[in-house]
Amino acid sequence: MTRTTKLQRYGAALLGCTAMLALDGCAVQKAPVAVAMAPAPVADLPRPVLPAGLPEKLNVPIQDAAGTYRTINYALSPDQVAWHVRSALNVAVLSCRGPGEAVIAADYNALLKRQKATLAAAYDRVQAQFRQTGGATWQSAQDAHSTRVYNFFALPPAKPGFCAAATEVLTESRTVEPVAFVTFAQGALPRLEAPFTDVYRSYDGYRRELAAWEARQPGATMLAQALPTPAPAAPPAVAAKPVTRAVVARVAPTPAPRLEYVGLETLIDWQPMAVRRNQQLAAIR
């Protein structure tokens, strides 16, 4: 066999193996290549909606380890509980309007008459506590506390549930003897407070859902972080003139922050004058 013939046969073998590689017929095989697949897009949930009737911003009391909201009604003495019940029912008789308002007013005035001595004794002991702890400003401290109590029970979103609870409590109070009123108040206050803590829990749940939803929006978060902080607006140009003491004296001071909810005066102003004259027993002592 000539050298040329051997080269021809060797070339033919190489061509045959090359052709068979395409058919995986040769001993040399290619390893499979793993291809990373992009995850399928997951449709995100819609943005949580604020529960009906709740404001976008609401001051919610802190909670203790048991999940109880530390409201103005938290950790009270029995005398304070009795007086807070009276205050809550006072707000109810002034603010709960509707077909049953006359019954609420009648039951409340009857309660004040029946429990006059009990409430007066509780009030005296509550006032003594403020005298003992408040020093020379004890009266201001007591007035501020009373304002907070009335504002707490005037939270608008809780009004329907509160008025229903107040109506039930007043109905049950018709048969409560004076000696049993303090015990009755211990059970009544949580019922009167429940509509308000329900509002807090609903709002807290909304805020948690909103925070979780916002955490799934990295694009929106990155965009907010990338946006430059706007520069403060330049004050309008004013014609140059000397500043006198008279001009400085006319600058109004910064107003003090207002209470978030209506005060007692506003609650009383809701009533027609004739009604107010007929509800002297419902006035704050």
Automatic annotation (TrEMBL):
Lineage: superkingdom: Bacteria
Signal peptide: 1-22
Keywords: Signal
Name recorded for this polypeptide: Lipoprotein
Species this protein is from: Sphingomonas prati
